[in-house]
Amino acid sequence: MTSSSSTAVSELSIKNVSIAYDDIQIIKEVSFSLKEGQIGCLLGPSGCGKSTLLRAIAGFEPLAEGEIHIDGELFASTSYSLPPEQRQFGMVFQDIALFPHLTIFENIVFGIKHWSKQEQIERVSYLLELVGLSGYETRYPHSLSGGQQQRIALTRAMAPKPRLLLMDEPFSGLDTKLREELVPEIRQILLQEKMSAILVTHDQLEAFAMADQVSVMSDGYIHQTGSAYQIYHKPNTRFVASFIGHGDFLASVVCGDDCVHSDLGEIKGHAPHGYDAGEKIDLLVRPDDILHDDESNFKGLIVNKWFRGSHFLYRVRLPSGKVVYCFASSHHDHSVGQRIGLSVHLDHLVLFPRES
Ligand SMILES: Nc1ncnc2c1ncn2[C@@H]1O[C@H](COP(=O)(O)OP(=O)(O)OP(=O)(O)O)[C@@H](O)[C@H]1O
Prior knowledge:
Structural class: alpha+beta
GO molecular function, one term: ATP binding
Order of helices and strands: EEEHEEEHHHEHEHEEHHEEEEEEEEEE
Largest sheet: 6 strands, mixed
Keywords: ATP-binding, Cell membrane, Ion transport, Iron, Iron transport, Membrane, Nucleotide-binding, Transport
InterPro entries: AAA+_ATPase, ABC_SmlMolc_Importer, ABC_transporter-like_ATP-bd, ABC_transpr_FbpC, Mo/tungstate-bd_C_term_dom, P-loop_NTPase, Transp-assoc_OB_typ2
Distance between the termini: 63 Å
Pfam families: ABC_tran (PF00005), TOBE_2 (PF08402)
Bound molecules: adenosine-5'-triphosphate
Protein name: ABC transporter ATP-binding protein
């Protein structure tokens, strides 16, 4: 086999997949697809089933229901499973697991030893340049920093030109600063290689920085699959609304086809919301919907505050007694117990049926 015999771009389709351990359903009828060359993310709290779903895609878990296809070809169903080694997928894990006794070159060619020597040399040289580590061929893993080792782990997984790259919390062992640098860098590398990939993470900022589409999971279900913008601004369930970013639900009443009456007064949206006048609903309010404004007569009492460098995040008690988040520029340093002016910037109404 030569390097040209495998493809680096694939479309993945997960249809109605369920997975069970000892009759306990862990993954429940999940469906999503990933276009070729795109990066998807499975995002959710610990124990929601992200790794289980990723392992099933890799071929390590049997399906209790559903099908997995790559480019229209059946990879797994309840009665069939293409063996993992025949799927041509690459994998990167949190535990970097480079072989310590092998050089960087030997680590990277591990999955392409059947290629000709010349092809191996060209592939390693190309990939090392891509990840900014040209000339590291003869070094050993212990002489590399954590970020460099993770880049090599990625390089090793990409070397055979996998049809799909699966990454399970690959950045969680790295410190925050390094992660912030490395994540967008790796996204660029994957885009440049047009490599389809799926990232598992519980960190939403990492998901936002890496993925074209994010599937938000909870308790074995996928609640929503969409862009970072969609899941933040147009969450389709209460779970997504509260898991992604900060937010509060204000018990409100519909007062027209594009407006609601809430603790913030009457709020008019820019589009019809689909609820009937008089209906009781909950309105999602994000910190960036309520801004500190010295000129405003609408006041809130600060009950908590967090300095975030570029801004302050305040918890403020509204005149109604309800407590909400509020954004302020970092120069507006007020104390807990102080009353500050608030202005409401909310015209995209996200409403949910009232919970009793
Ligand atoms: N081999 C197994 N046998 C039985 N139950 C398992 C097995 N592997 C995982 N589970 C259970 O399945 C559920 C989902 O686990 P999974 O590791 O997929 O979650 P996760 O979202 O990746 O969590 P984390 O972010 O903590 O890694 C958990 O309740 C876990 O205890």
